[in-house]
User: Fold this.
Amino acid sequence: MNGFSFEERTLLIIRGKNRLSFINNLSTNKADSLEVGQTIETIFTDINARIIDLVIIGQMEEATFIIGHQANHSRLLTHLLQRSNLDAVEITDSSTLNQFIRLNENHDSEVWTTRNGATLVSDGPFTLVVLSKQKSTSKFIEGLNETCLEEKRIKALRPGPAELTAKFTPYNIGLKHLVSETKGCYLGQEVLARMQSRGKKGKQLILVKGGDLEVGINGVTSTTNNHGLAVITPLE
Assistant:
């Protein structure tokens, strides 16, 4: 079924000639060679490699956008602002000026596109639409059914706000593919490199099933329709 949901996301605009190196020095994925029109996902971590937010980065002609999650917005914005002077970048919070719609369709994970005055990016198994609040959403949701897309997210092992917390590292919640092993230093890199070299990545994100799943019990973090995500210590 084709569906959509309105999302609690955030939008930051980063300006300055050093904006990509600024992002690159603070996040897990290689971002310093991003070309205009390209996107990547990356993770901002603290000094202990704990997650601040999973974000989508997109390169524009004169700026770079960062799409994050509302639940982590305060931490991420504070984290970036505290370090912005070092790289002479300017950060604008445009979150309240925009609306975010998650569509039940795939999008090329390497580029951002435009449609009907909106910006479209890949959001895992979904497409995320970023649209000014001054514009109507009807061209995107007309004829669609507003459905809960949680089951699809969970089955795809796609972390959401419940998993994207300071309790976990990227390795704990299935985001190893967003941790570059070839880039230079970034905040949290030493801890992640040590975990990698020792083969000890701690708890792991898994799919669980059952009619009695309850968040907070046995590591369960998200549930819907008898499916759930849990972060547990794997058996030796």
